[in-house]
């Protein structure tokens, strides 16, 4: 179990159409100003993404993705932030590393680009987040079929890890994520959250991205993602208690505070 407090990875979607904050940080100046706020609020890592992965989303070209993320990463490096690049493309990840990223957040766990494993091996100083994924966003909800979602997600992540380690990656580089909402229904997401102890058996740090997602909208009867914040914080608190390594969230301070309260309650126990 992770004995350090859960880290907060703040989301910076530089896209016009993501799940929860699409459009809000699309403009470069707005993206930097949002990042400065997150830094002031104590964010641990800023996750910069240029390609929307919301259900049904079409892919964008590599050039468009590059143009969105690399200038932002270059600027964030100057601000001293710890940077993650949310991409499925090894080329973009490589340029992001050169510009200052120290984490690759690959929602496809290496399935979308066969070059990704080589890049991870070539950059042992970089951490790699392998998320559970079955297909690109356009088709993924057709693949939300499981007998035992917790077991199948665990097995499929094990397979991703085996591929990376066989390619030469250092196990210490790897972080896993069950990919809530990716080829999963709301029920599947809850079942995964109820069974994080089973995922922890893989022996890797776990990242959870529940923040403001659609299944919380179904739970709380809300269409505006901002109205899902209380439910998001509840999940952060409970997963922090189970010892997950990190949470990927839209707001920073409320989640940092929730984690601090969880740590304080667990102190000296
Ligand atoms: N979710 C989204 C994008 N990237 N990365 C990881 N590791 N885990 C996630 O759950 C995840 C992700 C989609 O959500 P957003 O559009 O709100 O960023």
TrEMBL record:
CDD domains: DHPS. Keywords: Folate biosynthesis, Magnesium, Metal-binding, Transferase. The keyword Glycoprotein does not apply. The keyword Magnesium applies. One of its GO terms (molecular function) is metal ion binding. Its EC number is 2.5.1.15. GO terms for biological process: folic acid biosynthetic process; tetrahydrofolate biosynthetic process. Its cofactor is Mg(2+). Residues 6-260 form the Pterin-binding domain. Pathway: Cofactor biosynthesis; tetrahydrofolate biosynthesis; 7,8-dihydrofolate from 2-amino-4-hydroxy-6-hydroxymethyl-7,8-dihydropteridine diphosphate and 4-aminobenzoate: step 1/2. Transmembrane segments: none annotated. InterPro entries: DHP_synth-like (IPR045031), DHP_synth_dom (IPR006390), Dihydropteroate_synth-like_sf (IPR011005), Pterin-binding_dom (IPR000489). It catalyses: (7,8-dihydropterin-6-yl)methyl diphosphate + 4-aminobenzoate = 7,8-dihydropteroate + diphosphate. GO terms for cellular component: cytosol. This is dihydropteroate synthase. It comes from freshwater metagenome.
């Amino acid at each position: 179990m992770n004995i350090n407090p859960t880290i907060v990875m703040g989301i910076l979607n530089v896209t016009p159409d993501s799940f929860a904050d699409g459009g809000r940080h699309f403009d470069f100046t707005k993206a930097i100003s949002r990042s400065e706020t997150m830094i002031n609020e104590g964010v641990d890592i800023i996750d910069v993404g240029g390609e929307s992965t919301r259900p049904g989303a079409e892919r964008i070209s590599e050039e468009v993705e590059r143009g969105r993320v690399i200038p932002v990463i270059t600027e964030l490096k100057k601000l001293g932030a710890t940077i993650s690049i949310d991409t499925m493309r090894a080329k973009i990840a490589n340029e992001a590393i050169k510009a200052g990223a120290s984490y690759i957040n690959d929602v496809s766990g290496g399935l979308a680009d066969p070059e990704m494993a080589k890049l991870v091996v070539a950059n042992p100083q970089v951490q790699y987040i392998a998320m559970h994924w079955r297909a690109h966003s356009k088709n993924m909800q057709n693949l939300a079929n499981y007998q035992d979602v917790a077991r199948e997600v665990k097995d499929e992540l094990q397979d991703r890890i085996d591929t990376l380690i066989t390619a030469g990656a250092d196990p210490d580089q790897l972080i896993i994520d069950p990919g809530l909402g990716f080829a999963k229904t709301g029920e599947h997401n809850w079942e995964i959250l109820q069974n994080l102890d089973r995922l922890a058996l893989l022996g890797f740090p776990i990242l959870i991205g529940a923040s403001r997602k659609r299944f919380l909208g179904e739970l709380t009867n809300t269409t505006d993602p901002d109205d899902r914040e209380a439910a998001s914080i509840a999940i952060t608190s409970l997963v922090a208690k189970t010892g997950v390594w990190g949470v990927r969230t839209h707001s920073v301070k409320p989640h940092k505070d929730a984690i601090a309260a969880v740590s304080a309650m667990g102190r000296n126990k």
